[in-house]
């Protein structure tokens, strides 16, 4: 028996590509204000026969059919590129082998119930279609066809697909764009982060072909915001989520340096700061957070930064090189900036009100292990104190004075003391906002106002993992999912959010991965070696594991995320009795309910 693999278009997308008698793509129908209108999908670049160019095809034998058991994956080399070969429920599947997000090897990920989860950041891909089903990331994977002949496995695939290792799902285009009133749009998206962009892309993927306008206070098109603190010298074009041509191709309009000052939900009008007004039919609010500023004397002086843009990050790196840096706040941003600048600056000092970094999030023991790693890399901590004054010399920062009386030399100061939701412009709108300023939404990302949705860091939503408790989860992955759910429900799909929060932080070449929602945890069960920074920490509330974090123990966090996503419960006794042995043997079947 042989297994052959060749590129195919998923049935869902192939049906969208069926041509009408006039040679144009068959139209989709979408109702706007109750009126049926027809829209045409853009012709997809891959035809129903993906091998119209024989020179672009490669075929190779990769293994024997019995080499893979059910539930196993193998990365196979075709000479000009690699593919991921999967066997599940007696069937073979094949697709791209790298996660399109940051290129993680998916063979080291987790295979469960028809999808593969990335070992690094938790993105999930359907093994039958290659479609992305959970985030982060925007693109899906190329899928290859599998055939079995004479007990050998062959892969036949497009060279281009093997090299790119990513696939952008087919999208609709806007019709008659020139006929639109500039001050009117069907969908208005306030905010151009991950939530806003995924919302716009999902609408197009679902065949929506009316006008979409995104507006942002930023000067750039959507970019990979986590890299502002993890890779601070990245230029805007290097971290752009999509090139300019993408937005032109799919008619997603982006208004940069435009701030919405108010929203009139009765008239369905957004009023911009410069007086411009835009009518909308559906609205997504994805404005994110605004960083908190210091309240001490001297906070407005030069060389004091909140990192909000690529220019901020680039400027800090330039000014900090071989200079003295003070970072206020041991937040994720503050710690990542400290790690990035440690090798570049003359000195890095970090000021924090708490006793241990990340204590509320990772717990005291993990926090102390991380703190020691920083101290071993020349970062000096000043804990349980605050900044009382910033002093200048000739108009520039010179010293940071602490309430403890300590005076720190400082040429640059980075402030990372938290953030508040950027929702001040909604106070008189009638949209339900809680006491902390977060927009309250339901499982479909809908606000209390019909046609108004909200997503990302500025919302609280019911988290199924925690019995539908209303929570705020300011993670990059969650913003992606919010945007997708909002888009589907703008189109009246009735889709409820169901995902496991997943985040990561990178410091000194090491990553901590985290899944779940550990707010209010009452115990931490740690296996591994904190001193060696090779560990896994299970966060429990009563008898139940509510979150997990790890360093150098991939793919345990993705494995636990899959268990939690399936609705299973991990008990504290399971961790104590079994987990360490599971690491020793590599057997984690107990987590999926297959073991005992």
Automatic annotation (TrEMBL):
Lineage: Eukaryota, Metazoa, Chordata, Craniata, Vertebrata
Pfam families for this protein: Pyr_redox_2, Reductase_C, Rieske
Domain of life from the UniProt record: Eukaryota
GO biological process, one term: execution phase of apoptosis
GO molecular function: 2 iron, 2 sulfur cluster binding; metal ion binding; oxidoreductase activity, acting on NAD(P)H
UniProt subcellular location: Mitochondrion
Function, in words: Induces apoptosis through a caspase dependent pathway. Reduces mitochondrial membrane potential.
Keywords: 2Fe-2S, Apoptosis, Electron transport, FAD, Flavoprotein, Iron, Iron-sulfur, Metal-binding, Mitochondrion, Oxidoreductase, Transport
Domain Rieske: 60-155
PANTHER family assigned: APOPTOSIS-INDUCING FACTOR 1, APOPTOSIS-INDUCING FACTOR 3
Full protein name: Apoptosis-inducing factor 3
Main location class: mitochondrion
InterPro entries listed in its UniProt record: FAD-oxidoreductase/Apoptosis, FAD/NAD-bd_sf, FAD/NAD-binding_dom, FAD/NAD-linked_Rdtase_dimer_sf, Reductase_C, Rieske_2Fe-2S, Rieske_2Fe-2S_sf
Gene Ontology CC terms: mitochondrion
Family designation: Belongs to the FAD-dependent oxidoreductase family.
